[in-house]
Write a structure and sequence with these properties.
By secondary structure, this protein is an alpha+beta fold. It has helices at 17-29, 89-93, 114-129, and strands at residues 2-3, 8-9, 38-42, 48-53, 63-67, 70-80, 84-85, 97-99, 102-106, 135-142, 149-158, 161-168, 171-180.
Length: 184
């Protein structure tokens, strides 16, 4: 088990999904694992650090990062998040190139990691479609993490969720899902 040490990002007062994805990825890479066939599900909004474990977990998870070689579970702790870091998601998204139905991201032209870029891109795509709603990350499935240019395109609504396609050179390598935030 390892406790995350992630900050709040920007003006948020909750653990950002991109931070948790990054923490899970770092947890694996520290052990020499480069995951493929990723299925990252963000289940619960929390304002505390998470405990990452490779062991089976009974009970509710903050998030689950499944991949071809196993699963990392994120469990809620009572360890507070004690720092903030600047984060301008809208400013990041403004640097991406509009394409039909979405945005193109060139990872070679940014210092931001893939997860920050894909989250910002799909949220911007959704806000362009309807800026009156507040969107929340729910899930991402990836064959592999792109390391160069990729596009994020709106695909379709699925029940309570909105699906986006993550593509490299026109080939789908993953999907990203957002819900519409409701305070209920």
């Amino acid at each position: 088990m390892s406790i995350t040490n992630c900050p709040f990002r920007g003006t948020r007062d909750y653990f950002h999904s991109a931070s948790l994805f990054g923490a899970c990825l770092a947890h694996l890479r520290e052990r020499g694992i480069e995951p493929t066939d990723i299925d990252f599900i963000f289940n619960k909004r929390v304002a505390v650090q998470a405990d990452l474990t490779d062991d089976p977990v009974d009970g509710p998870l903050v998030a689950a990062f499944s991949f071809d070689g196993g699963k990392v579970s994120a469990i809620e702790t009572n360890v507070p998040i004690t720092r903030n870091e600047p984060y301008d998601e809208d400013g990041l998204a403004a640097t991406f190139i509009p394409v039909d139905g979405g945005l193109e991201v060139d990872l070679g032209k940014t210092t931001n990691p893939f997860i920050d870029c894909v989250v910002a891109a799909f949220k911007a795509v959704l806000l362009k479609r309807d800026s009156t709603k507040k969107y929340v990350f729910a899930r991402m499935k990836l064959q592999r993490i792109p390391n160069r240019k990729f596009s994020v395109l709106f695909s379709r609504p699925i029940g309570r969720f909105l699906e986006g396609s993550i593509q490299v050179d026109g080939v789908v390598v993953g999907q990203i899902y957002y819900g519409v935030w409701s305070s209920n």
